[in-house]
Amino acid sequence: MQLTATTSATVKTRIAPTPSGYLHLGNAMSFAITWALARKSQGTVVLRIDDIDNTRFRPEYLQDIFDTLDFMGIDYDEGPRTPLEFEQHYSQHLRLPQYEDLLNLLAEKNRVYACPCSRSQIAAVSPEGLYPRTCRDVQLPLEAPEAAWRVRIPDDTVIGFRDQLLGNCAVALALEMPDFVVRRKDRIPSYQIVSLCDDLQTGINLVVRGEDLMLSTAAQLFLAEQVGATAFTNAQFVHHPIILTSEGNKLSKSDDALSINEMRQAGLKTKDLWQKIATTLGWEDECITDAASFLKSFKLENLPHHISKV
Fold first, then answer.
1. What is the chain's pLDDT, residue by residue, as a tens digit (310 residues)?
2. What is the pTM of this model?
3. Do residues 36 and 28 lie in contact, with contact meaning Cβ atoms separated by under 8 Å?
4. What span, in angstroms and rounded, lies between the C-alpha atoms of 299 and 50?
5. Element containing residue 113 per DSSP (H, E)
6. Which domains does the chain have, with CATH numbers?
């Protein structure tokens, strides 16, 4: 596993959808921003499909990822070209040994502990659902049955990093995500472990994600610091604004009315989707009708920090 910084300054980023529902307008906007950032700097785009949590996986959701990218006219340089190729060569379940290596490294450094607490037990003592570090000092064996692994986060831990859009950011990780899970009770590694490991393996040096995932960035930076993964701690980050519903909630894949698939069935054309993205970003006057015109108009500094509700 590559843990040290790479010497190349060439931008390499990833589009990383999850096959847990039909993609929506917010996903499309994130794809567009990520792709444009790479292409503006003659960088590399990787398609990484995050399927480690397959509880909501359906084949049609996987197909929808390829259909949406094709519909948008967004290309990429590395990654699967078909659902079959993904399942045979790119599924995260094929990389479990690499994730386990990272988990074992944390265990060797005494950074993790076993915790059998259920969500209901945690909710009973912590109405906000924040883990009260019940098992931190219990010293259960790591291989105790029905126990997750949690990472030890020292009190008052604050993760600071520079965001290319938002500037200097600081996340109070110990308060907002205390001792988060890194291996589930079913022994499957958590998203934080998987995402960090994949970014290291593929040499990602620009991480683009919605501002709602800033806490995940802080969690992954903390893990990277624990194992000396300077390739990640030296990466660049862009947290773009997310689209909210009229009620002020984040768009969800369960909201079929705003899924790309549903809108296409209702007659949405490629031009219409790009105009929706442009309007959402406040770029109505830029004459954006496809990927090429979006790229021509794209400037990171012109991205809004917040988006009006749709």
1. 444 444 456 999 999 999 999 999 999 999 999 999 999 999 999 999 999 988 889 999 999 999 999 999 999 999 999 999 999 999 999 999 999 999 999 999 999 999 999 999 999 999 888 999 999 999 999 999 999 999 999 999 999 999 999 999 999 999 999 999 999 999 999 999 999 999 999 999 999 999 999 999 999 999 999 999 999 999 999 999 998 776 767 777 765 557 999 999 999 999 999 999 999 999 987 899 999 999 999 999 999 987 755 5
2. 0.93
3. no
4. 28
5. strand 112-115
6. 12-109+155-179+189-302 (3.40.50.620)
